Amino acid sequence: MQKTAILTRFREVANAPYAYLRKLKSTTGKQMIGSTCAFTPEEFILAAGAHPFRIFGESESLSGADAHIQAYGCSMVRGMLEDGLSGKLDFADGVVFPHACDSIQRLSDIWRLNIKSLHFDVLLPVKLDTPTAKNYFVKVLQRFGKDIEKALGVHITDNALKEAVILMNNLRRRLKRLYTLQSEKPGVISGSDLAAIVKAAMVMDKQEAVTWLDELLVLLENEQGSQEKVKRILISGSVCSHPDIHQMIEDKGGVVVWDDLCSGTRYFEGIVDEEKPLVEAIAGRFTQRYVCPAKHLGVSFQMENLKKLVSTHKVDGVLFMILKFCEPFSFDYPDIKEELENMEIPFLLVEMDRHNEVDEQMRTRIDTMLEIL
Amino acid sequence: MAGRLKATKKMKSIMKWYYIEAKYARYLGKKIAWITSGGPVEPLIAMNIIPIYPENHGAMIGASKKGGKMSEFAEGLGYSSDVCSYAKNDITSSITKESPIKGGLPKPDMLICSNNICGTVLKWYEIQARKFGVPLFIYDTPFVHTEFTEEAREYVNEQTKDYIRFLEKHTGKKFDYKKMKKVGKLSLEAMRLWKNVLETAEHKPSPMTAFDAFFHLALIVTLRGKKVVVKYYKQLLKELEVRNRNNVGAVDNEKYRLLWDNLPIWFRMRWLSEKFASHGAALVADTYTQAWCGVIDYVDENDFLSTMGEAYTRIHLNVGVDQMADTIKKFIKQYDVDGLVMHSNRSCKPYSFGQYDIQNLLQDEDIPVLMIEADMTDERKFSDSQAEARIDAFMEVIKQRKKEK
Ligand code: SF4
Ligand code: SF4
């Protein structure tokens, strides 16, 4: 198949994820389980024969959410709630709330009180770096497995869990390969296509995503990147699901060669060790891979991690896209900023009111930064 | 007019000596631990480590009306204008030394952070751990949306052991289990006394208001487990009981009784208290100060260490919104209140998100609710005129309803 045709398919999913899911439900009859954070152990949902997908907060208006969460909640949390309240997610059979930030905790309560569907709280530890916490992590996953079994009325066999682990690993490896290609040959794919692919992968049937990715990767392996010298950009933040950002960057001769986003690499980083006992191995992936700032993996993890990414991907400039009202991400910023200043890496902080909107001011600031680089 | 509580003076002196001791800790051979307001302080007391509460300091900064300015300084360093102002005040003060306490808080030797109040403190303590280069212990309390799971119990209990090992390592001393037993008992006794103190407000007229509670709270937060706290609350309790016997109310001619939700608005305490009093309204109870005695039933007096995990996990801010609403319902009855005042606190998301749903859950109580938009220390986020107009309107509703009843 042609590259554009494959990309179009991914884009169609990314542009209308819920329409895709509705269709998937009607064709497969699978139960649909939404998730509110990248810490959802999707393997258990797959192994239960259900379909895991990420909720994006697609809604434009937030009038329903306004009656439940004050305007000083981040647009992600308010947007997800709006999706739920407005009926956009009426196809979903249940929603998973992993312990993440304070706002998601409260979102879970509010959801449980207002939206009828299966409800799963996954009470993950906040620290990931002690034996006690790792032990607890495994038990939380075991409970999640049991909760899913009970709620969906199924039995999760070891075989099914193993298959799910392999499937998710396959998906993760391919997404990672795609990112790596972009870092090795910047411009080999447009940034907005890449963003659409990750987004689609969070929604799609995982096997289908793997197949499409295989088709795409074969083509891209043989293609060249941009012929001109590009400015290598890294985006860091919580979620940035707006394709326009990439267009803006590319118009100014930049390419996003890597990201550190919940809507990007945080979804697929880390591989579950297929040789180890399964539940421990799934937990192991979460406690070892690089994590979201709402979790603790040593006091300087985020700074060290970003420095590592900057040098691995020879980044020329960092763009912080932080959602307004997001505490975990904004608390890390000043110290990360200092590290970047020491490394003499230019950066820009863009505070976004909405994760799915780009305004003029943002555009101007990003343009200016790229011109300086 | 009831006048000031005599105990107030005593409390100021206790706090003064507490900070003086902390300032000279090094010369006294003592270590200092910074700890979050909901953190397990008793093991520190048992180890003779001086606990210091940046949140208490934040409250003092708020009360001295410096919160806005100090938050602004932190914002200049890159901290967002939308994050918790306690954290920003502390970050600022540890750089500029600006503080209501001379020289600011004494430097920590270690940091103890429990996320039972929020995830914010985790980020905040990470920042300070980097800055001071001192060890950080996290007492991680899984959220109790609906149930306290068996694995959560095991997890917190294991962490109590980790915590003790941490303290032994960083003090170079063996943990004193015998002393811990005493401290545990004293802590529980202090919590019971604090509960009794708050419950004196069931009396009509109430001998104290939430504004008094906010002030007298400092000891149960900072020094529970010490004898002086028990002694102090006994004295305070006595004074309040005398008021009750003589029917002396904190608010002259108390006509209406109100319940407060969320942290205080520290920089407008007097203004608010006078404002409500001018309507004959007393804020007789609040959800915030009750948090330090809300979990007494989970603690075993004779085995504090193995039961504190559950108690620290189930505090008001670490449970589901519906459980918070239940607590409020209980207080509405217990204190026989006519209205609920909710502080929608921009700094504190875990306390504030869910307040609308709590209102929905209170529908059967048929009680008027006022929501005040503010921040506990950042006066830039508060409008006097708006609050005044809303309070007046709310009090009108309450007066009307009381007439009709
Ligand atoms: S953007 Fe920040 S505040 Fe919002 S859900 Fe994500 S971590 Fe939480
Ligand atoms: S005010 Fe709220 S967010 Fe800030 S430290 Fe206290 S509990 Fe945490």
How would you sum up this structure in a few lines?
With 373 residues, chain A is of the alpha/beta class. Helix content of chain A is 54%, strand content 12%.
Provide structural commentary.
With 373 residues, chain A is α/β, with parallel strands linked by helices. Chain A is 54% helix and 12% strand. In chain A, the strands form two sheets. Chain A has a four-stranded parallel β-sheet, sandwiched between helices. In chain A, strand 5 (231-237), helix 11 (243-251) and strand 6 form a beta-alpha-beta unit. The longest helix of chain A is centred in the middle third of the chain and has 27 residues, at 158-184. The model of chain A has no long low-confidence stretch (mean pLDDT 94). Chain B has a domain at 13-175: Rossmann fold. Chain B is 52% helix and 10% strand. Chain B has helices spanning 7-23, 42-46, 54-63, 67-76, 85-96, 120-132, 150-171, 177-199, 210-222, 227-245, 269-278, 304-313, 321-334, 349-352, 355-361, 384-404, and strands at residues 32-35, 50-52, 110-114, 136-139, 256-261, 281-286, 339-345, 369-374. In chain B, the strands form two sheets. Chain B has a four-stranded parallel β-sheet, with helices on both faces. In chain B, strands 6-5-7-8 form a four-stranded parallel β-sheet, sandwiched between helices. At the A-B interface, helix 6, helix 7 and helix 15 of A face helix 6, helix 7, helix 14 and helix 15 of B. Bound molecules: iron/sulfur cluster (SF4) (2 copies).
